[in-house]
Amino acid sequence: MRESEALSDLIGDIYDAALDPSLWSGALGKTREFVGGQAAVLCWKNAVTKCGCSDHQDGGLDPHYVQLYFDKYVRFDPFTMGQCFAEIGEPVVIADLVPSEDILDTRFYKEWVRPQGLVDCVVCVLDKSATGAALVGVFRHERDGIADEETRRRMRVIAPHLRRAALISRAIDLKTTEAATFADTLDRIKAGMFLVDAAGRIVHTNASGHAMLTQGSVLCAARGRLTTHEPIAERELYEIFTLAGRGDTTAGSKGIAVPLTSNTGERYVAHVLPLTSGARRRAGTSYAAVAALFVHKAALEMPSPPEMIAKTFKLTPSELRVLFGIVEVGGVAETAEALGIAEATVKTHLQRVFVKTGTGRQAGLVKLVAGFLNPLVD
């Protein structure tokens, strides 16, 4: 199959999964095939508490190792902080995050990576919160080799579609949603949801959407067409509606999340899901709709304390891990054991942390971190 055909097929499956979570496994399987690798996973990682969970996977990894990772090894994963702080939509690989000489000494590599024959992982951040990030990752086996520029390019191509689907899944906020019975579940969706045609005419609205239109502070209906109080946002939405009418591939890279502001200053965000192919087509056909618009209040997003510390003092992911290891665990030997690296490696990173932060003792590092964690501390 040519790349354009494979891409179109994959994007359709990704958007179908936004409505029907049971389809994520198949969509991730095609993601793995398109990008190149052994397995694909959609997961959430917390850079502060060093925990995580797998939302969906394609079955390419041994279930025993998947469970082992989230039960035990996520705490030792040297890549978590770097992955969570990466730019949204920009692929990163192992070499971007941790020097190779640091990796080989870790428990994570010796006990989890090497036994599976894995050699690399290309990851994209899809969304961030104050503590972590939603990620999609494709693992590379020895037979696949280290991820190259072509691997990055392919991940970069599908990242906007994966992000759009993940954000819409969150906006829908339903435990189970069958695409075939989509119309029957609209009123259960907390977000305001509008089915629109390519010209932005409203053809169906759920209960929350009706409430928004009645209030009129964020969206209005003018002669049956959806309008906003912001001309720029309105133009962007109408451009997306037009693109949605042309198919999945054209719509994915535009307007992943369109910001809206109410006439009272409250901030909202809108996500657009094309309804032009796959299982989604059955949802829109009865209404002659080409897209579903989901609108909900925007959550306040702030950088996590580790990310702020890293940016303030220009710390590498490895240095940041050692900093928090020293603060949370206590000493060099204890930190080395907890992180699964050599004491000499901890000492090297610690000296660099002292220089960059202008501290000279571990007690100074504890005070520094506490200042970022508690905004009331001077």
Describe what this molecule looks like in 3D.
With 378 residues, the protein is an alpha+beta fold. Helix 15 (317-329) packs across helix 16 (332-339) and helix 16 packs across helix 17. The protein is built from 18 helices and eleven strands. The strands form three sheets. It has a five-stranded antiparallel sheet with strand order 6-5-11-10-9. Strands 2-1-4-3 form a four-stranded antiparallel sheet. A two-stranded antiparallel sheet has the order 7-8. Helices cover 47% and strands 19% of the residues.
List the helices and strands and how they pair.
Layout (H helix, E strand, L loop, with lengths): L2 H17 L4 H12 L3 E8 L4 E7 L5 H9 L8 H5 L9 H4 L2 H4 L3 H7 L4 E11 L3 E10 L7 H24 L9 H4 L6 E5 L5 E4 L1 H9 L3 E4 L2 E4 L2 H14 L3 H4 L6 E4 L5 E8 L4 H7 L5 E7 L7 H9 L3 H13 L2 H8 L3 H15 L4 H12 L5
Antiparallel strand pairs: 1-2, 1-4, 3-4, 5-6, 5-11, 7-8, 9-10, 10-11
Helix pairs in contact: 1-2, 1-8, 15-16, 15-17, 15-18, 16-17
